[in-house]
Amino acid sequence: MMRMRPSGSDDGSSRGSAEEAAAGAREVGGEWEMRPGGMLVQRRGWDPGAPPPEMRLRISCGAARFEVSVCSLATFRELKKILTAETGLQPAEQRLFYKGKERGDGEFLDVCGVKNRSKVVLTEDPTSLERRYVEMRKNARIQSAQRAVSAVSMEVDKLADQVTTIEKSITERNKVAEIQITTLIELLMRQAVKLDSIHTEGDASSQKNLQAKRVQKCVETLDLLKTRNGRLKPAVVTTKWETFDPPTATTHWEYFD
């Protein structure tokens, strides 16, 4: 197969070359045809009015092997678009090799000699592979942070329930042991330290800030309850019982006629 491309930058000379190529194509008895852009290729054997035939290509991508159908007049760019649906790789992330040579997006399959059942090797662009690896590590960090924040959230839920119980008891003027309040404050501060040590990104950051505010609110509530609890008088419990003398029994009976 023969190709002829315009070689000069001058428009006139380019048009002249294209016209000469077209004239040459006519001189050889119609065995050649002109492609858009002045490329001269051998004429196909099918009816020009009929749609171009499709061919099946064998694709090798790492350990994966599969086949795709593509128009015989397609470019490697169009083949990449088809492969996107099979591999999930965008065209810019793909590199295609045929007969050991990387093919450019603008090259035509048939011009490069690709035929039905030909083998094309697909690899991922190294730059794209590195970006994917970085993205995977970033997602792993985000998921790890989300799990850590979720674990702290569960602990804060339990401690917040205890704060509510103590608040209810003090509101009913029932004095609570001070050690309960101070211990609960210490446990909440431990959760605050855990939150502060978690490195978060994206949505995990908002969840972390929300839990930090919850912990702060619980600690402030306990400080107020501690003051109120100190003003309450403890309930006095006595073990002395009041005794009563039994009534005196009498043996005198009153008689009635």
TrEMBL record:
GO terms for molecular function: adenyl-nucleotide exchange factor activity; protein-folding chaperone binding. Keywords: Chaperone. Residues 53-122 form the Ubiquitin-like domain. One of its GO terms (biological process) is protein stabilization. The keyword Chaperone applies. The keyword Transmembrane does not apply. One of its GO terms (cellular component) is cytoplasm. SMART domains: UBQ. Residues 7-26 have a biased composition (Low complexity). It comes from the Eukaryota. Residues 1-29 are annotated as: Disordered. It holds the Pfam family ubiquitin. PANTHER family: BCL2-ASSOCIATED ATHANOGENE, OS04G0619900 PROTEIN. This is BAG domain.
